[in-house]
Amino acid sequence: MGLIHLEDIEFYAFHGCFKEEQLTGNRFIVNLTLETDMDVPAETDSIEDALNYQIAYQLVKKEISITSHLLENVAKRILDALFTQFPQLKLARVKVSKMNPPMGSVMKCVSIEMERKESNKIV
């Protein structure tokens, strides 16, 4: 087994409960951890045998571009897409951070993190 980390992927998107957030948008940071068996690709040195993290990035990019009220909804869609695309995926963890949230105070970000294991796949 091994872990793939996609770290601090930055997007501009339009998530939030307030109408203003969905009109003006905000910066979002996504961190992704994927657990998969790496024995075969480590031996073959072939992308066909590996969990292709470029495709994982494209899935994240697609899902974050769909406007949602809640970060939980964004994270769930990312997990759904990953487990649909990658049957070899054992575990996925996604953290979605909204930078400078409209909280009435200076705040770096607010984040949610969700995890799903292979046994919790949606069939």
Structure description:
The chain is of the alpha+beta class and 123 residues long. It has a single domain (2-120), classed as GTP Cyclohydrolase I, domain 2, CATH 3.30.1130. It contains 4 helices and 4 strands. Strands 1-2-3-4 form a 4-stranded antiparallel beta sheet. The mean pLDDT is 94.
Mean pLDDT: 94
Number of individual domains? 1
The CATH homologous superfamily is termed: GTP cyclohydrolase I, C-terminal domain/NADPH-dependent 7-cyano-7-deazaguanine reductase, N-terminal domain
Could you tell me the number of beta strands? 4
Number of helices: 4
CA(first)-CA(last) distance: 23 Å
Short synopsis of the structure:
The chain contains four helices and four strands. It has helices at 19-24, 39-44, 53-64, 71-85, and strands spanning 2-13, 26-36, 89-99, 109-117. Helix 3 runs antiparallel to helix 4.
Layout of helices and strands:
Elements: E1 2-13, H1 19-24, E2 26-36, H2 39-44, H3 53-64, H4 71-85, E3 89-99, E4 109-117
Antiparallel strand pairs: 1-2, 2-3, 3-4
Characteristic terms for this protein:
alpha+beta, 123 residues, GTP Cyclohydrolase I, domain 2, four-stranded antiparallel beta sheet
